[in-house]
Amino acid sequence: MVSSNNNKDMVVTPWEVTGEVDYDRLIRDFGTQPITSQILKKITDKTGKLHLQLQRRIFFSHRDLDTVLKLYDEGTKFVLYTGRGPSGPVHIGHLIPWLFSLHLQEKFGARLYFQMTDDEKFLINDNINLQHTKKYAYENALDLIALGFKPDKTFVIYDVEDIDLLYDITLEIAKRITYSTAKASFGFKDSTNIGWVFWPAIQAAPCFIHKKLTGENVPALIPAAIDQDPYWRVTRDIAPKLGYHKPAQIHCRFLPGLGSGGKMSASKPETSIFTMDSPEVVKRKIWNAFTGGKPTAAEQRKTGGIPSICSIYQYFFYLFEEDDKKLFERENRCKAGEILCGECKQELFFRLNKFLEEHQKRRERAKDVIEQYHIKR
Length: 377
Ligand code: TYM
Prior knowledge:
CATH class of the largest domain: Alpha Beta
Bound molecules: ligand 1
Number of strands: 9
CATH topology of the largest domain: Rossmann fold
């Protein structure tokens, strides 16, 4: 099973993330590379100021990012590939790799292939039908478009509808991955349905679709959280056998939920902020959030709070405070007991709502243009 479950508390697979995630350990267990300052320098040379998610090492690990940058210098472009399993509404954790993909699209002029895995979520979940996943594939695409991707460079693949585009590539991939490798990589059991066993070949296919569509053989760079890594490991092994570049990855950390520990996850709606949440709902969730505060205001003023365990602080760190100096100030004032949790919650509520209000408007407008993003337009 590809999970780092030597540590009893931590499980990281494409379908389950539990326990306290130890990112250094994942780099070792998964065999990925840390993003070094050398790589950051190379990126800065090309993009100007580093994106917040790199600057704060929210994207912290990679496979072959250096190779992709080198090829780029030599004149071989790359395409971006990422995706979503549309089992329900999008939460703001999902936006982390998408916002970063948008940045890369803008800076490198790269095409993005975006896979909506309405088939995957149907196969792995006993309680949802295809109608449900197809509906959310559409809904989730609105969230993607609302972020500002350009239609001429963005190609959304809805698996069930567009499988004919992927099928020949999928077959070439599936033929070269043994059941034993799949079992070791994904933890399949005798009780796993055979659709799910075959399915990883479908998530691998968009890595190579650019060549089929354009004739250009360029590498794909995949921004995603590190839970998706098992897919790429098996795909990278077979890519050269099929005459493709190995797909490269850049992995991010998980935006935590609003509880004490654990990633933001749709299965825990009360500690997740969904893009369609109303201000009242956001307020309730933020007010119930786990913080690094003390039991009483008097005690907190005296001994200070603990930002490192505070879920509210994490939101400023990941998304809602771009200014390092101000972030640092907030941290120090919290530790010194100069601000209380109510103040941070109020400020986050304000910023989050502003973001969601704008996002929801753009999402509404996306309904008029969604077809322009469909790979089969
Ligand atoms: P899914 O729908 O589970 O997640 C979509 C994307 O969001 C990332 N993610 C998070 N990132 C930061 N913080 C979080 N709390 C958080 N939760 C989820 C995931 O890593 C993912 O990048 N099988 C995939 C769909 C897919 C895909 C891909 C994803 C198809 N092809 C290529 C990435 C790249 C899935 O179910 O993702």
